[in-house]
Amino acid sequence: MSVKQVIIVPKDVKMSKGKMAAQVAHASVTNMLKMVGGRYMAQRDLVTDWAASGMTKVVLEVPTTIDLMKVLHNAQGKDVVTCVIRDAGNTELEPGTTTCVGIGPASEELLDTITGELKLYGES
Amino acid sequence: MSVKQVIIVPKDVKMSKGKMAAQVAHASVTNMLKMVGGRYMAQRDLVTDWAASGMTKVVLEVPTTIDLMKVLHNAQGKDVVTCVIRDAGNTELEPGTTTCVGIGPASEELLDTITGELKLYGES
Fold first, then answer.
1. Which candidate from A9, A30, A122 shows the least CB-CB separation from B16?
2. 8-47 in chain A: CB under 8 A from chain B
């Protein structure tokens, strides 16, 4: 089973390259921390499999923050770890701006049912 | 004590915004995994402090990969967690290309002695 993590960034939030990278990293770490405790304990093997296979992370895009919330809502109906990253707003963005959503680590098959239609960030 | 993590990206490696974000996320997660086991066990409180204070991540730049190796060498002489991220080369880059270096979580004071002179990514 192939395990990966996806992070989805809305194109209508304007961030510098460095800012976006930090936000995506927040999402990646947040989900990993969620996986090692609490309600995702049963999925801990996924973290091991993910780490062993190079911790694949894929950054996808959606046009707007509304689209992002639709994807999140879809994911929250399934047994997969999710997080919503909001910016403190100290630098480029308004406080509380949603910058990205992280989903997984999870099986590629499950992730494809949630984000299979989305493009790689920057490809559209 | 303020705890943060820095990720340093060389400007001479040309990556898309999504690619760079994924690489920075690799560095962030890799260092956190290193902190929870092995030689950095004594520094585990840093992870707790870092998580409690919002897991601050700062993305910095250096002009070239050579500069990146100098910063890494400096960091490796101190008691701080580091990682070097290399790309598998399946998409935009040559296999094995070094894409970034992660340092910390660590105290801001210690990090400033290593990366205090570097600019935020994209600011130069």
1. A122
2. 9, 16-30, 32-33
Residue A86 dihedral angles phi and psi, to the nearest 5°: -120, 145
Residues B93 and B86 sit within 8 Å (Cβ to Cβ): no
> Are B3 and A35 contacting, i.e. CB atoms less than 8 angstroms apart?
no
Q: How many domains does chain A have?
A: 1
A7 in B contact zone (CB under 8 Å): yes
* A20-74 pLDDT tens trace: 999 999 999 999 888 877 778 778 888 889 988 889 999 999 999 999 999 999 9
Q: Which residue segment(s) compose the domain that B55 sits in?
A: 3-120
| pLDDT single digits (tens) B33-45 | 888 777 787 788 8
The answer to whether A25 contacts B30, with C-beta atoms less than 8 Å apart, is: no
For residue B19, the domain's CATH number is: 3.40.1490.10
